[in-house]
Each structure stands twice: as C-alpha cells, then as structure tokens.
Amino acid sequence: MGVGTAQTVVADKPGSSRLTDDPACCDDVFDRDLLLHLVQHAAREAKSSESSIESVLGVTPEQLEIIASFAGMTIADLAARRGAPTPDDEQLMLRELLMRHRSQPGEIGEWLACIIARRSMEPNHLWEDLGLPERPDLKRLLMRHFRSLAANNTRNMRWKRFLYRAICESEGFTMCPSPTCDSCSEFHICYSDESGPSALARNGHEGKPSVVE
C-alpha cells in the first residue's frame, strides 16, 4: 500500500475523550490508553494529509503493528507497507535525548521517544500535536517514562521549548537571548499558557466511534 492510501484503525473498544486519571489505575492501563489516543490522532492526521500513520508518528511499520496490538487496535493493510520514515537531524537529537532519560528499559519508552521527537516538529503545543486531551496528560507521560528529564522542568516551561533547551544544553550551546529566564525578552514564549480545548475537541471528534478510515 503506498502513501496516500488511507489506513483503517479500529479499536477494540471506543476511546475516551480523556485519559484515565484514576490514581489506583495501573501503569499498563495508562500506557494502553495513551497509545490509543496517539495512534487515533495520527490516523486522523494521516487521512487529512494523505500520508501514512507511521510517518505521522515517526515509527516504523513494524513498531506501529506492535503498538497497535498493545493498545488493542487493528490497522488494516499495515502488513503491506515497507520501509520506515527517515528522521532528520533535529528529530534524531531529540529522540536520543529522550532515550538517554528513559525511566525504564523496554519498547514503550523507545516508541514514545520516536513519537515525541516526530510530533515536536509540528507547529502547535506538543500535547495538542500528540493528540492528548489535556496538557497535564503530557506531564504525566513525561514524568512516567522520562522522569530524570521531565523533573528538571521546575518552572512549568512549555514542554516543546523545554525539550529544545535541553538539547542545546546537552550540546553545549544556548538558544536563549538572556542568561536568566526572568530577564529574558522571550519569557512569554516559554512560559505562556498552553491550556485550552484539545485538537480532538476542536475538530468535533469527542464522543465519535473510535474508527478512522
């Protein structure tokens, strides 16, 4: 199946418009719910842009097949796809940063490092471009899977800005016009409000069946 041919995503159960926030909920349930949201959002974007889900997510077809199975989804025609998206240098740097800070070994952290790096290339708030219902969902994701990195965001900086700043610091240079945040002319860019309706809500998808064709 070539790029431009729509893939069909069918979830075993309808996706909620919110991620589970039950503190008693086990982490595996949160991860499955999270990945369900990420793939369904990517499927909608892939359909509108006539691209593939894996290119929107930044994962290989083989990874996407495993992710879909883990999250209880079926992606039609996936087995016919070949090849993998080629990340640019920026994506690779961000992916490597996240991989260095994984909270535990395993595939889920690797999948999320690839997905976050790819979705950071998009123009909106990172939580929106990931397809998450709310900004706090992104904090929970990062604190669960990349805690040693996320814990450094002590002043609630915008996450995309924070990640790029972390790359700069790891490479020994800075993107900031001022040595301190409080005196910086771009303070409002890094720290202004990221809340608001999710892309899911704005596009009128809340409450719809979790089938994307």
Describe this structure in words.
- This protein has 213 residues and is mainly α.
- The chain is built from eleven helices and three strands, in the order E-H-H-H-E-H-H-H-H-H-H-H-H-E.
- It has a three-stranded antiparallel sheet.
- Helix 1 (27-49) packs across helix 3 and helix 4 packs antiparallel against helix 5 (107-119).
- Tertiary shape: globular
Helical residue percent band:
40-55%
Largest sheet: 3 strands, antiparallel
**Rg over CA atoms:** 17 Å
- Decide which structural class fits the backbone: mainly alpha
Strand order of the largest sheet: 2-1-3
Keywords:
11 helices, 213 residues, disordered N terminus, three-stranded antiparallel sheet, 4% strand, mainly alpha
Topology of this protein?
Elements: E1 9-11, H1 27-49, H2 53-57, H3 61-71, E2 73-75, H4 89-100, H5 107-119, H6 126-130, H7 135-145, H8 147-150, H9 159-171, H10 187-191, H11 199-202, E3 211-212
Antiparallel strand pairs: 1-2, 1-3
Helix pairs in contact: 1-3, 4-5
Brief account:
With 213 residues, the chain is mostly helical.
